[in-house]
Amino acid sequence: MDKKEKASFSVPEMRRILGMRKTDSYWLVKKGCFATVIVGGHIRIMRDSFEKWYAGQFHYRKADGSPPGAKWTATTRSIRETAHLLNIKEATLYDLLKKKPFKTLQIDNRTRIDIESFEAWYSSQTHYKKIENQIGGESDGVNR
């Protein structure tokens, strides 16, 4: 017989999933990050709304190591990922962002770069090269 996954779980279970303290877990519940129900006088977190919340944020990580932010990783890149892609320092990328050459989003107080907007900008300029387009497909050792 297949073990069916429950539709909800308790706050202590959520705390173990995220590896967090009691106060932090109840703060997320109070903030309304996910749907909850009261069963037998105890708060239960609806699993589907928890997973949707987890996929849309980057701050909290599951204790099992599964990465957060799945909702955003297909359409955006982090500052670190973009700087590595261009083989430049993050500070250099922040200087470039001041000119607003492509669209950025603020997600959980983190700047994410819209991939489509970045690619349009990248194809319209000649100064920056992606790491795979540099000499021999490898980094030329320059970290601008």
Query: What gross morphology would you assign?
Result: elongated
Largest sheet entry: 3 strands, antiparallel
**Structural class assignment:** alpha+beta
Strand content: 15-25%
Q: Which percent range fits the helix content? A: 25-40%
Within the largest sheet, what's the order of strands? Answer: 1-3-2
Compute the number of helices. Answer: 7
Please, could you describe this protein's structure?
- By secondary structure, this protein is an alpha+beta fold.
- The protein folds into two domains: 59 residues; 63 residues.
- The protein contains seven helices and six strands, in the order E-H-H-E-E-H-H-E-H-H-E-E-H.
- The strands form two sheets. It has a three-stranded antiparallel sheet. The chain has a three-stranded antiparallel sheet with strand order 4-6-5.
- Strand 5 and strand 6 form a beta hairpin.
- Helix 1 packs across helix 2 and helix 5 packs across helix 6.
- The longest helix has 10 residues.
- The N and C termini lie far apart (58 Å).
- The relative contact order is 0.11.
- The C terminus is likely disordered.
